[in-house]
Automatic annotation (TrEMBL):
UniProt protein name: ATP-dependent RNA helicase
Name of the top EC class for this enzyme: hydrolase
Subunit structure: Interacts with NOL8; the interaction is RNA-dependent. Interacts with PRC2 complex components EZH2, SUZ2 and JARID2; these interactions prevent deposition of the repressive H3K27me3 mark onto rDNA in pluripotent cells.
Family, per entry: Belongs to the DEAD box helicase family. DDX18/HAS1 subfamily.
Compartmental location: Nucleus, Nucleolus
Source lineage: Eukaryota, Metazoa, Chordata, Craniata, Vertebrata
Organism: Ciccaba nigrolineata
Domain free text: The Q motif is unique to and characteristic of the DEAD box family of RNA helicases and controls ATP binding and hydrolysis.
Location of the region described as Disordered in the Swiss-Prot/TrEMBL record: 1-42
InterPro entries the UniProt entry points to: DDX18/Has1_DEADc, DEAD/DEAH_box_helicase_dom, Helicase_ATP-bd, Helicase_C-like, P-loop_NTPase, RNA-helicase_DEAD-box_CS, SPB4-like_CTE
UniProt keywords, alphabetically: ATP-binding, Helicase, Hydrolase, Nucleotide-binding, Nucleus, RNA-binding
Cited CDD domains: DEADc_DDX18, SF2_C_DEAD
Catalyzed reactions per annotation: ATP + H2O = ADP + phosphate + H(+)
SMART domains: DEXDc, DUF4217, HELICc
Length: 544
C-alpha cells in the first residue's frame, strides 16, 4: 500500500495498481428477485427473514464478507437490512436515518460491490463519491471504508478541506476508485484538477444531507450534481426533512426512489407478529366508521389505504377541515411534496397518513400501529403488500384492519387460500359517531369540498369497476345511493364509466331517475345534477 502523507493527521490512501490483477475471481450474480410468499401472511419481513450478514452470500463478494467479519459484525441493523439488497439491485434510495443507525455500512457495502463487480481499476478513475458534511464525519466514514476494503484491491481515498491539496491532486491523477469527500474540496478538484477522472462515476452517496446544507454547501452541491454523469445510482441519507433537502433530492434522485425510514430508538429489528382482522360495514356507514376509528386512535400511528388519488385528496381535505389532522401521499402530488410528507410522518410519534397503493409503494415507515384498508385491495398479493409496508407497532406488534361491505365477504376465501386467515373485529355500532347530517350539510354548502367529494366518488366507482376479482367486486351490485352517502351526498353524482375504461359493455343506470347512477354507453347526455367544474375532471387517472 502506498501512503501519501498530508498535513497533520490527514492522509490519502491508495492501493497499489500492481495488486489489481492478483487473481480476482468474479462472483456470479444470482438473480436477486424475491418471490412473493403468500405463506408469510403477516407481511412482517423482519420476523421471518435472516438478517445476518452471511445471508448476503451470493449477493455480496467473499472479500466484502471477510471485511465485515473482521470488523466483528454478524447481524444487520434495521437500515442495513432494508437498504442493502435494493441498493445492490441498483435502486436509488432516500433514507431517514441518523448517525449510529448503521447507515455507513448500508451504503458502503453496495458501493464497494459495485466497484468490485465492474472490476474498476485506477485507470478507470472514480466510480463512487461519498459526500460528508464535515471533516470529522468524512474521516469516520473513511475509517469504516478502510476496514471494509481490507480484502479488496481497489483504490480509495479521503479528499477534504484542510489537507494537502497538491498531494490529493496527484493521487486523483493516479486514479482513486472510491472517494470520501467534503463538498467544497471535491468541487475544487472537479473544477481545477485536470487529471481527476469522474466521468465514469457509477454511484453518488450524500450522507447527512440536511447537515451538508445546514453548513452552507447548498451551491456546491448543485454544481457537483450538475457536473456528474446523469446515469448513476444515488443514495441520499438525511435525519430530517427540510425544503433544501427536498430540492436536493429532486435534482439528485431518479423519479421513483425507494423510501426507507427506521426507528432509531428501537433496540430490535424483528417483531413477533401482526394482529389482523376485518369488520363488515354497510356502504352508507363506511365514513362514519372510519371517522370514529381514526378519532379514537389519533394518538397512535396509522396508515389508511384508498383506491384512488382523488379519494385520498378528498378525505385529506375533509378530515383536516373537521379538525382531525391527517397527512396524505398520492400519485397526483409532486415528488417534493411526497418526500416532505414521508419525512414528517416518519419522524412523528403519532399521526394518520392517507395513501394509495402506488404512492405508498417503497415507503418503509417505522412504528406504525395500524394499517387500515378503507377501500379493499385488488387481490391477496396487494393485501400482503399493504400490511407488509410496516408491521412494527408498539412492543414489536402491529395491527391491520380490513373494512369490507357485506357483498365483499367472498374476498376472505381468497385470503384464506393465500394463507392469510383473518378474525372478525367487533365494533359497537351504538358508539359510532353519527355525523351524517352534518357531513351532508357541509358537502352541500362548501363548494370546494363538494367538488372534491364529487371527484372522489367518481374515482371510487371507476376504481371499483376496474377490480380484477369481478365476482367479488361487481360494480353492478353497488347500491349507489348508499355509497354516495359515505361521500356526503344525498343524491349520487353521475359517473361515466367509459372514462378510463376499456370495457365495451353497457350498464343500466341504477337507482331510478334524476340523472344519477352510472352508464357505459358512449353517447350519453349527462344530466347535470351538480355543476361540472370542467371536462378535465372526467379524464383524470386513478391509482390503487
Amino acid at each position: 500500500t502506498k501512503k501519501a502523507k498530508t498535513e497533520e493527521d490527514e492522509s490519502v490512501e491508495v492501493e497499489d495498481e500492481a495488486k489489481q490483477d492478483s487473481g480476482e475471481k468474479e462472483v456470479e450474480e444470482e438473480e436477486g428477485e424475491e418471490d412473493e410468499v403468500p405463506s408469510l401472511p403477516l407481511g412482517v419481513t423482519g420476523a421471518f427473514e435472516d438478517n445476518s450478514f452471511t445471508s448476503l452470500a451470493g449477493l455480496v463478494s467473499e472479500n466484502t464478507l471477510k471485511g465485515i467479519n473482521d470488523m466483528g459484525f454478524t447481524h444487520m441493523t434495521e437500515i442495513q437490512h432494508k437498504s442493502i439488497k435494493p441498493l445492490l439491485e441498483g435502486r436509488d434510495i432516500l433514507a431517514a436515518a441518523k448517525t449510529g443507525s448503521g447507515k455507513t455500512l448500508a451504503f458502503l457495502i453496495p458501493a464497494v460491490e459495485l466497484i468490485y463487480k465492474l472490476k474498476f481499476m485506477p485507470r478507470n478513475g472514480t466510480g463512487v463519491i461519498i459526500l460528508s458534511p464535515t471533516r470529522e464525519l468524512a474521516m469516520q466514514t473513511y475509517g469504516v471504508l478502510k476496514e471494509l476494503m481490507n480484502h479488496h484491491v481497489h483504490t480509495y481515498g479521503l479528499i477534504m478541506g484542510g489537507s494537502n491539496r497538491s498531494a490529493e491532486a496527484q493521487k486523483l491523477g493516479n486514479g482513486i476508485n472510491i472517494i470520501v469527500a467534503t463538498p467544497g474540496r471535491l468541487l475544487d478538484h472537479m473544477q481545477n484538477t485536470p487529471g481527476f477522472m469522474y466521468k465514469n462515476l457509477q454511484c453518488l452517496v450524500i450522507d447527512e444531507a440536511d447537515r451538508i446544507l445546514e453548513v452552507g454547501f447548498e451551491e456546491e452541491m448543485k454544481q457537483i450534481i450538475k457536473l456528474l454523469p446523469k446515469r448513476r445510482q444515488t443514495m441520499l441519507f438525511s435525519a430530517t426533512q427540510t425544503r433544501k433537502v427536498e430540492d436536493l433530492a429532486k435534482i439528485s434522485l431518479k423519479k421513483e426512489p425507494l423510501y426507507v425510514g427506521v426507528d432509531d430508538n428501537k433496540e430490535t429489528a424483528t417483531v413477533d407478529g401482526l394482529e389482523q382482522g376485518y369488520v363488515v360495514c354497510p356502504s352508507e356507514k363506511r365514513f362514519l366508521l372510519l371517522f370514529t376509528f381514526l378519532k379514537k386512535n389519533r394518538k397512535k400511528k396509522l396508515m389508511v389505504f384508498f383506491s384512488s388519488c382523488m379519494s385520498v385528496k378528498y378525505h385529506y381535505e375533509l378530515l383536516n377541515y373537521i379538525d382531525l389532522p391527517v397527512l396524505a401521499i398520492h400519485g397526483k402530488q409532486k415528488q417534493t411534496k411526497r418526500t416532505t410528507t414521508f419525512f414528517q410522518f416518519c419522524n412523528a410519534e403519532s399521526g394518520i397518513l392517507l395513501c394509495t397503493d402506488v404512492a405508498a409503494r417503497g415507503l418503509d415507515i417505522p412504528e406504525v400501529d395500524w394499517i387500515v384498508q378503507y377501500d379493499p385491495p385488488d387481490d391477496p398479493k396487494e393485501y400482503i403488500h399493504r400490511v407488509g409496508r410496516t408491521a412494527r407497532g408498539i412492543n414489536g406488534r402491529g395491527h391491520a384492519l380490513l373494512i369490507l361491505r357485506p357483498e365483499e365477504l367472498g374476498f376472505l376465501r381468497y385470503l384464506k387460500q393465500a394463507r392469510v386467515p383473518l378474525s372478525e373485529f367487533e365494533f359497537s355500532w351504538s358508539k359510532i359517531s353519527d355525523i351524517q347530517s352534518q357531513l351532508e350539510k357541509l358537502i352541500e354548502k362548501n363548494y370546494f369540498l363538494h367538488k372534491s367529494a364529487q371527484e372522489a366518488y367518481k374515482a371510487y366507482i371507476r376504481a371499483y369497476d376496474s377490480h380484477s376479482l369481478k365476482q367479488i367486486y361487481n360494480v353492478n351490485n353497488l347500491d349507489l345511493p348508499k355509497v354516495s352517502l359515505s361521500f356526503g351526498f344525498k343524491v349520487p353524482p353521475f359517473v361515466d364509466l367509459n372514462v378510463n375504461s376499456n370495457h365495451g359493455r353497457r350498464l343500466q343506470k341504477r337507482g331510478g331517475g334524476g340523472g344519477f347512477g352510472y352508464q357505459k354507453s358512449k353517447n350519453v347526455h349527462k344530466a347535470k345534477i351538480f355543476k361540472h367544474i370542467s371536462k378535465k375532471s372526467d379524464s383524470r387517472q386513478f391509482s390503487r
